[in-house]
Specification:
The complex is a heterodimer of chains A (39) and B (261). By secondary structure, chain A is mainly α. Chain A has one domain. Chain A is 62% helix and 0% strand. Chain A is built from 4 helices and no strands. The termini of chain A are far apart. In chain B, 49% of the residues are buried. Chain B has 11 helices and 7 strands. Chain B has 2 domains: 163 residues, NAD(P)-binding Rossmann-like Domain (Rossmann fold, 3-Layer(aba) Sandwich), CATH 3.40.50; 86 residues, UDP-galactose 4-epimerase, domain 1 (Alpha-Beta Complex), CATH 3.90.25.10. Helix content of chain B is 43%, strand content 14%. The longest helix of chain B has 17 residues. With 261 residues, chain B is of the alpha/beta class. Chain B has a 7-stranded parallel beta sheet, with helices on both faces. Classes of the chains: A mainly alpha (39), B alpha/beta (261). Chains A and B meet through α1, α2, α3 and α4 of A and α8, β7 and α9 of B.
Chain lengths: 39, 261
Amino acid sequence: MYRTIREGHLDVVSKDLNTLTGQSAEGFTSYLTRRLEEF
Amino acid sequence: MAMGIMGATGELGHRTVEAILARGTAAEQVIAAVRTPSSAADLLARDVEVRAADYDDPDSLKTAFACDRVLLIPTSAPSSLRARQYDNAIAAASAAAVRHLVHYGFVPTMVESPFQITPFLLSAESALRMSGLAWTVLRNSVFMDPIVDWVPAIVKMKTIPLPTGNGRCAYITRDDIARAAAVVMTTSGHEEKVYNLTGPKALTTAQLCGVVAKVTGKPVKPKPASGFDYVEACRASGVSTEATRCACLCTGRSARGTWMS
């Protein structure tokens, strides 16, 4: 895990969220776009 | 099944209560365990039971934890104090016959990690495992929310002065973490499991700059930043202390390519 983080491959372990919720985690572009109207 | 949420009025705790209710859980089954019950008026109005609970007050925890499952959310206290708070919580949960403890942890929970709160994270997970209670750990990645909160200032600075070097991180939204926790809190089969909750892709700060530039249409470009640059930028733009603390804990790691660890 430590090695995985160091190499920046956290996207590999994000499968846990998909497994639990049945959905992908929201990405930065989507989240920023969704919240942009707040500013 | 009654379930308690510690810190239910906090940024993550409140979202978790919302996510649990969104799954159709009866409000009467949800207990908001909070230090200041008057701050949970909105939850009370929705028939969520609000109980006083303070990690530093073991008696309050014993009363608040009269339920089947409890979600523990760490405070922002120093590591050694957090560890004592968790000892209080686990002892209270045992005394109250809680069946299952769920803990919000953090991804770099490993002995070799230099991350500043790692001693607490290791201690908390060990204490859970030795408690004799069923347990589940949700190891979260770094929150995406504070970065987006910072976007108006980022546009003015024309860069994101995060001291990450070329390190990458799979930032995740609090809402996604809350949705995952809600599943664990409302379904079975998660005992003795550790889940790593991260965003969909690990990004460098340069990549974050590219996204902000594209979405806002403003010139935001990567620029090398030190921890000092970051703190000064936060101070100038009034960024939350949470976001500042989070990145400062990581400062100095980026030079070795260990932003997250």
